[in-house]
Design brief:
alpha/beta, eight-stranded parallel beta sheet, 42% helix, 17% strand, binds pyridoxal-5'-phosphate
Length: 230
């Protein structure tokens, strides 16, 4: 299947999932995850109507963003940082990204606040929450979240808009549901708006549970292949 069919298929599935849970499909943003996808594919996705793109590495994003800009000038195109952000990349991240989904420490918030101030920008961010006990994952647990939120909301060049999570991978998307419910509970508790949750294998469950942003790569661009830029 081509990109256009893939994308319209995903929008349909988002709509149906939204309707099943009494939500409006317009309240859900599709973030097209371009890691491992080349610039031609990204241009095709822009032509197909996508406007919000996600990358998990600053360096890969930097090349693509400037390359795309040299080819098309469309101010509606937004880039989101969805992967773990290293502190030494914070300055570039502020320059490149409309929204950073992966704030996970006060130190990182402080750096983003400083660089955003220097750039005369208010950086929109989400806090990444880790709800499982997996070693390899980034994000803060529930207790640390309270502390990080309290500190970060006071920073004048940062706007905390919501929470993000990545549940443990399972072939059965239903297994993600409790994690999505928990993230929504924490989002509501902190009075925030955005919920970034759901990927190719579980985005419909995420929408049923209240996701306002789903991050989908494989279902749009195809398999990344074995070494395809995780
Ligand atoms: C790669 C990635 C995605 C997209 O995953 P797919 O399974 O290809 O849809 C979403 N979120 C994050 C944080 C990722 O790194």
């Amino acid at each position: 299947m081509g990109l256009v069919e893939n994308i319209s298929g995903i929008y349909k599935r988002i709509s149906h999932a939204a309707m099943r849970s009494g939500r409006s499909p317009e309240d859900i943003i599709l973030v097209a995850v371009t890691k491992g996808a080349g610039i031609d594919k990204i241009r095709e996705a822009v032509d197909a109507g996508l406007r919000v793109f996600g990358e998990s590495r600053v360096k890969e994003a930097e090349g693509k963003i400037s390359n795309l800009k040299s080819q098309i000038s469309n101010s509606e195109i937004k880039w989101h940082m969805i992967g773990h952000l290293q502190k030494n990349k914070a300055k570039q991240a502020v320059r490149l990204f409309d929204l950073i989904h992966s704030v996970d420490s006060v130190e990182l918030s402080e750096l983003l606040n400083k660089y955003a101030g220097e750039a005369g920008k208010v950086q929109r961010v989400l806090i990444e929450v880790k709800l499982s006990h997996e070693e390899a994952k980034h994000g803060v647990g529930e207790n640390k979240l309270r502390e990080l939120f309290k500190e970060t909301v006071q920073m004048s060049n940062i706007k905390v808009e919501g929470l993000m999570t990545i549940p443990p991978y399972s072939d059965n998307p239903e297994e993600s549901r409790p994690y999505f419910k928990e993230l929504k509970r924490l989002r509501d508790e902190h009075g925030l708006k955005e919920l970034s949750m759901g990927m190719t294998n579980d985005f419909e469950i995420a929408v049923e549970e209240g996701a306002t942003m789903v991050r989908v790569g494989t279902a749009i661009f195809g398999e990344r292949g074995r070494w395809g830029g995780k």
